[in-house]
């Protein structure tokens, strides 16, 4: 996404009067609806199985089939959702667009909560509420794993909405500043500074001092302009006017650049927070899943009864 100038065919036309074509548009991805359909269908199948298990009198316990299978499915969905980070940061050669992987990450993350609730038969949510803090440690950190998963998914949804909000702010800023994104603004600011410095070449000390003050963030930048113009030659006054135009545009772009960089910093900080939550949550969920598999399926570990 960027903002490209329409170059004028008239010679001598000022570049400051260029019309900028806004092309801030991201094409919609079909993966959004594909992964929604796949995720919704998969969950409906599991939910149908869940209802059948309840009506046939099967015990609704996490370590009983099919509720054990629901837990395995939830853990597999967690790993599939986490593969988005692998695709984006480490294995960029994997097929598919990052945007498509993001939709997979989003929809699978949402239904993972629903499948985990089936696994627990909605315990801790609609019944069997936690009474004391030690209840969080039962079933090999099962309640903590469930709440960590809920926190992870909801933080991801909030982060996605926050990203869209800040991205729209940056897109609006880039579309209205006449230059574009932060990198383009920085290049334009450097060009304007070089233009002002070149116009100072061979001029009086007062001319140079005025331009230097305009380049600094002071509150009284134009106090010398009226008195300075009267003491300059016509050519110097013309150069002063050009320098003023360049410095005015620079000051305006610096404000726009500040807004763009602020949005970028906020997005980076939020993503770092989400990565931290995801790492801790994945660690807890993995521990709970491995311990449950070791006890109920592989029978590697046994539960030691309390004395």
UniProtKB/TrEMBL annotation:
Keywords for the protein's UniProt record, in alphabetical order: Membrane, Transmembrane, Transmembrane helix
Domain of life where this protein originates: Bacteria
Spans through the membrane: 33-52, 67-86, 98-119, 139-162, 272-290
Name the record gives this protein: Uncharacterized protein
Organism annotation: Ktedonospora formicarum
Top-level taxonomy: Bacteria, Bacillati, Chloroflexota, Ktedonobacteria, Ktedonobacterales
């Amino acid at each position: 996404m960027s903002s490209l100038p329409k170059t004028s065919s008239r010679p001598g036309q000022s570049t400051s009067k260029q019309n900028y074509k806004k092309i801030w548009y991201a094409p919609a991805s079909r993966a959004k609806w594909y992964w929604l359909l796949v995720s919704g269908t998969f969950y409906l199948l599991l939910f149908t199985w869940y209802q059948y298990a309840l009506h046939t009198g099967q015990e609704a316990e996490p370590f009983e089939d099919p509720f054990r299978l629901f837990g395995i499915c939830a853990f597999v969905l967690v790993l599939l959702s986490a593969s988005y980070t692998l695709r984006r940061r480490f294995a960029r050669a994997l097929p598919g667009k990052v945007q498509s992987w993001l939709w997979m990450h989003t929809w699978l993350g949402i239904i993972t909560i629903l499948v985990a609730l089936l696994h627990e038969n909605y315990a801790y949510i609609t019944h069997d509420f936690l009474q004391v803090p030690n209840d969080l440690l039962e079933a090999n950190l099962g309640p903590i794993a469930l709440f960590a998963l809920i926190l992870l998914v909801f933080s991801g949804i909030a982060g996605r909405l926050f990203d869209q909000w800040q991205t729209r702010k940056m897109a609006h800023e880039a579309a209205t500043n006449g230059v574009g994104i932060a990198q383009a603004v920085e290049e334009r600011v450097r060009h304007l500074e070089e233009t002002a410095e070149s116009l100072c070449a061979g001029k009086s000390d007062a001319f140079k001092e005025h331009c230097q003050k305009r380049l600094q963030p002071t509150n009284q930048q134009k106090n010398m302009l009226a008195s300075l113009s009267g003491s300059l030659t016509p050519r110097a006054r013309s150069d002063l006017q050009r320098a003023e135009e360049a410095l005015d545009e620079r000051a305006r772009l610096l404000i726009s650049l500040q807004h763009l960089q602020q949005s970028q910093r906020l997005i980076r900080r939020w993503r770092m927070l989400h990565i931290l939550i995801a790492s801790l949550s994945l660690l807890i969920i993995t521990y709970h899943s491995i311990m449950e598999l070791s006890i109920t399926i592989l029978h590697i570990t046994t539960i030691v009864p309390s004395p």
